[in-house]
Amino acid sequence: MKLTVFGATGMVGKQLVQQALFNENIVKAFGRNVYTTDLPDNKNLQLVQGALFDPTEVFNAIKGCDAVLSAIGGGFDGTDKTRTLGIRNIIAQMKKANVKRIIAIGGMGVLNADENTLLIDGDDYPPEYIPVGKEHQKAYEYLKESGLDWTFVCAPDIIDAGPTGVYTTAANYPPAHNNYKINAGDLAMFMLNELKKNEYVQQRAGISN
């Protein structure tokens, strides 16, 4: 497959690039610092330096690909709009480029607590995570309204570690066996596997090691 990875220089993004190349995909790695980050030297990797908010640069990165993987991040205090404005621009350019499939990373707070409530709305939700959680919630709403074939992976604490292949997932809710953490490598592995299996199309996915 031809894949475009946004946030390619971050903890999960680098895992996505490495694993996608290992699985013999053709990868465009998009980011501000792709030329100064230790990404693999591989004939199937194209480095695309660009700004996430620039429509033309994002369109050119997406054009001709089969799917988009988004590992874009940002600050935690609610002032950084990278996640929401970034995903909104990615969605717009995917529509323009006629690319339908996207798998993006969000936060666990966007999962359901019950049929009517998100975890982020619960009284016991950690207040320090609410600002960034609201950004994830807006990104989820943009995806839900997009008409694309999206999957929003609602991750708990992400650990800077490689893949183990041992993790559990659930649709729209946290997994039943939830350790509230996931290795960056396993998060990337799940995202790439989801491209093949399509088990969570137009759904949120809870995940945990």
- Major sheet strand order: 3-2-1-4-5-6-10-8
How many domain modules? 1
Number of strands: 10
* Number of helices in the DSSP assignment: 5
CATH architecture: 3-Layer(aba) Sandwich
In short:
With 209 residues, the protein is α/β, with parallel strands linked by helices. Helix content is 31%, strand content 24%.
Describe the protein in words.
This protein is an alpha/beta fold and 209 residues long. It has a single domain, classed as NAD(P)-binding Rossmann-like Domain (Rossmann fold). 31% of the residues lie in helices and 24% in strands. It is built from 5 helices and 10 strands; from the N terminus they run E-H-E-E-H-E-H-E-H-E-E-E-E-H-E. The radius of gyration is 16 Å and the shape is globular.
Give a quick set of tags describing it:
209 residues, alpha/beta, Rossmann fold, 8-stranded mixed sheet, 5 helices
Write the layout of secondary structure elements.
Blueprint: E1 2-6, H1 11-22, E2 26-31, E3 45-49, H2 55-62, E4 67-70, H3 82-97, E5 101-107, H4 130-144, E6 149-155, E7 157-159, E8 168-171, E9 181-183, H5 184-197, E10 203-208
Parallel strand pairs: 1-2, 1-4, 2-3, 4-5, 5-6, 6-10, 7-9
Antiparallel strand pairs: 8-10
